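Work Package 3 (structural annotation) set out to generate three-dimensional models for the target panel prioritized at the project kickoff. During this period the team completed the workflow that converts sequence records into discrete structure tokens, so that structures can be stored uniformly alongside our sequence database. As a representative example, we reproduce one entry of 724 residues exactly as it appears in the project archive.
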Amino acid sequence: MLRRLYASREFAPEHFGPARWITGGTAYTTVEPAPDNGGSDIVRYETATGARSVAVAARQLIPRGATESLDIDDYDWSSDASKLLIFTNTQRVWRQNTRGDYWVLDRTGGGAPKKLGGDAPASSLMYAKFSPDGNRVAYVRQGDLYVERLANGRITRLTTGADSLHVNGMTDWVYEEEFDLRDGFRWSPDGARIAYWHFDMTGVGRFLLTNDTDSLYPFVTPVQYPKAGTTNSAVTAGVVSADGGPTRWLQVPDDPRENYLPRLEWAGPQELVLQRINRAQNTDRVMLADASTGAVRAVLVERDSAWLDVVDDLQWLAGGKEFTWLSERDGWRHVYRVSRDGQTVHLVTPGAFDVIEVAALDEPGGWLYYIASPDNATQRYLYRVPLDGRAAAQRLSPVDRPGTHSYDISPDARWAWHTYSTFDTPPVTDLVRLPSHATARTVVANERLRGAVAPLTSRRGEFFRVALPDSATLDGWMIRPRDFDSTRTYPLLMYVYGEPAGQTVRDQWMGGLGLWFRMLADQGYVVASVDNRGTPAPRGRAWRKVVYGAIGVLSSREQADAVRALTRSRRYLDSTRVGIWGWSGGGSSTLQAMFRYPDVYQVGMSVAPVPDERLYDTIYQERYMGLPQENAGYETASAISHAEGLRGRLLVVHGSGDDNVHYQGTERLLNRLIALGKPVDFMEYPNRSHCICEGQGTTLHVYSLLTRYLLEHLAAGPRGRGGV
């Protein structure tokens, strides 16, 4: 079964896209294999009728002198769709493929695509995008910004001085990882100027990733990586003419190393809107900046006694006189309308529930579309509410389809690509009309996958709630063997994440991981997961932020309390055979469980953990713990400080090339366990990153290891009551 899961495409899902709405939503384009198996066509569909036509044939994407068409990793249209920008020959930079080659096809000229970048080396351009009029493309090359005029290929360099410690139009490692900010420049609405971020990484600690296997002698890759409590990059922003010239730097107040600038967008032809977050990440200032003078003024200040998340749903209304804002100021995450000067703040989505995300803003129709699930934190549904907030919200997702619904809504808010799945059923994507939610057609049916998984999902997963001694109630799911016998007892394997960055208990298809859990269940395990407080479930601000300053402490206690409650209330769960495992934050939670509650767990499998919270990056760790200089709890909260508690069997797995959660932490943990005389099992994956996915056969090897470890150390299968 493991080979079927991880060394074949038997359970691979179908994919749709990359797809783009065009002409406001009356049509869309997507990528499909060319009928002659010679590359990919970009196909246009009329949204209402489904009429299909080939917008760009694969043969049109053959460069002059070449015999094969360009592979399409991604693409974009100019505003009038007369030009097509192709991203190809891409390379991974940390988490995503963000470096590659860019080509432009002018559909009006009938010629071959032209490569951008002049004499730039292969796969060296980043974040290319059309100017608003479609006549130029801006991109980052080796840390500097360039603009290329498409009519004649003339290239203008906008910034200088990039090196290993200074970059323009892109970000450093920690902003990319924790603020999800990569593309660091923005065209002005009139195409005359470009606003961009500048990063000065001088003084940021260098972490050296050592490669022992790919050459005769080891070599290192340095990464500017600020660990908790250490020096951050100095981050500034400026505006430069698209024709070149000096930069006008924005006069953003306060020390650029002790504050963050995670968001910056144009707010009209002359102003920019930015978010300025202090290092403690408990104050977010929304500021407007004059692009010509650089003057900056604050219009809204958001504060929290714990932490604040960056707001990605700031959109302009009323011709730029108002903007939307997400806030937890009343204890729930809600959408507000804020006047441009910040003097008026109006609640749009009242109620005792969380808005999970804004799905669309239909100002002409007077509606706000958003995702929420007021009654069940494991599910997701689409709602809409009048923009004035004076009428009740309407649920648009069908009431007879419980589970997880996600949407990509057209610019005119009349259509959406709607993807629906449940814990037991793979996703289906269809095109729906809004607001009726009537299905126009299915674009991804996943029929082959549904047939392949049907035998494995014949026993449906169970969702439950478990009450803890302190009156908290946690959501959970459970998978039992297909031949389950309630008169027998089974070992319990808990899957955990447990930190603010992840929610494991979702009523949605889990892909290969969920199928592995079902395979383990059929080996004779009950597999379960619960979300402790502090995970990002839509259950209110207090639920999420109760863990502030002590990550790992409350979560590990609640996980252990949940296991005790489950094994007491369900007689088929064997309290003497309990295992726990997780990856990344879940690997950390596994260590916390094994060290703090050895009476509860007999086996743990910790993959890519953070044993010592002082070793992780500034933005993530300080957001939830504060600075180490101000919180002595770093040491007491870290799992490594409780390693003496280990009694059961522990497997630790880590990739030595992990740029995110450093292998250093696992080495320190191993030293601590050695000093304590504690037995531990350990597997290193040479040069693998945080996903431990690089290299032929790696994923199969990882899950084979985990499966084998369970079978060897947590006896599978049912037993008679009493352990006979």
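The first helix runs from residue 2 to 6.
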